[in-house]
Amino acid sequence: MLSGGAGTRLRPITHTSAKQLVPVANKPVLFYCLEAVRDAGITDIGIIVGDTVREIEAAVGDGSDMGISVTYIPQAAPLGLAHCVLIARDFLGADPFVMYLGDNFLIGGINALVADFCAERPDAQILLTKVADPSQFGVAELGADGTVARLVEKPANPRSDLALVGVYMFGPRVHDAVRAIQPSGRGELEITDAIQWLIDAGARVTPHFVTGYWKDTGRLEDMLDCNRLVLESLEPGLHGTVDEASTLVGRVVVEEGASICRSTIRGPAIVGRNTKIIDSYVGPFTSIYHSCSIERTEIEHSIVLEHSTIRGVARIEDSLIGKEVEVVPSSALPRAHRLMLGDHSKVSIA
After folding, report:
1. Which residues contact 118 (CB under 8 A, 6 or more apart)?
2. Closest C-alpha to 279, from 239, 240, 321, 311
3. CATH code where residue 309 lies
4. Whether residue 177 is found in the same domain as residue 143
5. Cα→Cα distances 30→68, 96, 175, 257, Å
6. Are strands 69-74 and 97-100 parallel, antiparallel or unpaired?
7. Is 318:13 a contact under the CB 8 Å cutoff?
8. For residue 225, is it left (φ>0), alpha (ψ between -120 and 50) or beta?
9. How far is it, in rounded angstroms, from Cα 81 to Cα 170?
10. CA distances from 16 to 58, 122, 158 (A)
11. Does residue 251 share a domain with residue 102?
């Protein structure tokens, strides 16, 4: 499970937080990944960690709460996905394994992928999906017989619209591949180069096509889209308090210790534990994490991280707001705001 990486596309949030721990429907993205691996019957998990190691360790611990056993594998610098396989050699031994990027969101889990791999036993199995802009991904080209013929990392002129999804399965032969390849022009050991080495060496590399929902949650738009999708499947639950002057409409979860006063929550939405919503409107597709305070505010289609305060703001939409952020009004308020705020920010909105 890869949980290093700088998360540059989610800055400033990721200046101080691990991108894999940004919550979707009030649960970190990394947890969805770990649960997918566990549900496929894999419970011995090595997590590659970088500068955010302490935050990842604090969130996941030894994995026992999730029914898994976690080993942390430090990566001194982000030197590529194949480098992650290289440094995990002692942990992996000669066993087949899943490599899962901890910021990828894949609805439906990986049970079918694992079953296919166990039945077929190729040297590598990759997930592919059609994308609108393949130049942003590793791209696969298939031969006439449907097998993987060529892989290119972020090509300027893609010859295929099949992008690699961030979940891979490998047999032990991949260890020869990651030792044989050289760093790319980016200075990284590319997993696409390692898989291409396997293909050129006559190894069997099979594709598995993803027909359901998949997102690389590296951008604000992707985070909000994943949040929307998960919230749509929420089962309503009232575990906090809602006064008589408040209204809950549709799929709404109010977690333990949360309080709703003189407010309307229109689902799908989730209000985290010990959060207070006062004289406010929380619209559809909104996740508010724990210990927040929302007062005299309208907010919709947004994610708010823990310990943040929003007070007296007429309208917030399509926003990701970091930890311990304070958003308060100045002398004049516009009708709507679009915000992406880093941790510990303080903003006065004109």
Report:
1. none
2. 311
3. 2.160.10.10
4. yes
5. 14, 22, 25, 25
6. unpaired
7. no
8. alpha
9. 13
10. 15, 40, 35
11. no
Q: Which two tokens stand for residue 81?
A: 């996905």
Is there a single domain that holds both residue 86 and residue 99? Answer: yes
pTM: predicted TM-score of the whole model, two decimal places: 0.84
Q: Which structural domain range is residue 262 located in?
A: 234-349
The pLDDT tens digits for 260-292 are 999 999 999 999 999 999 999 999 999 999 999
Q: What is the pLDDT of residue 344?
A: 63
Q: Which of 230, 259, 283 is the last residue of a domain?
A: 230
Q: Which of 204, 230, 256 is the last residue of a domain?
A: 230
pLDDT of res. 38: 95
What's the pLDDT tens digit per position in 77-87? Answer: 888 899 999 99
Which CATH number does the domain housing residue 125 bear? 3.90.550.10
Residue type, 24: V
Nearest alpha-carbon partner for 311 in 342, 280, 339 = 280
> Taking the chain, what is the end-to-end CA distance rounded to the nearest angstrom?
43
Contact at 8 Å (CB) between 329 and 346?
Answer: no
Unique residue bearing structure tokens 């399965």: 169
182 in the same domain as 272: no
Same domain, 53 and 87: yes
- 202 and 63 both lie in a single domain: yes
Give the residues across from 321 on adjacent strands: 304, 341
SS3 343: coil
Question: Which residue shows structure tokens 């721990």?
Answer: 21
Q: How many domains does the chain have?
A: 2
Question: In sequence order, which residues have a C-beta less than 8 Å from that of residue 222 and are 6 or more positions away?
Answer: 105, 215, 216
- Do 197 and 274 lie in one domain? The reply is no
Considering only 124-138, 232-246, 266-280, which range has the smallest mean pLDDT?
124-138
Instruction: Go through 194-214 and write b for each residue having 16 or more CB atoms within 10 A of its CB, e for each that does not.
Output: bbbbbbeeebbbbbbebeeeb
Q: What percent of the chain has pLDDT over 90?
A: 51
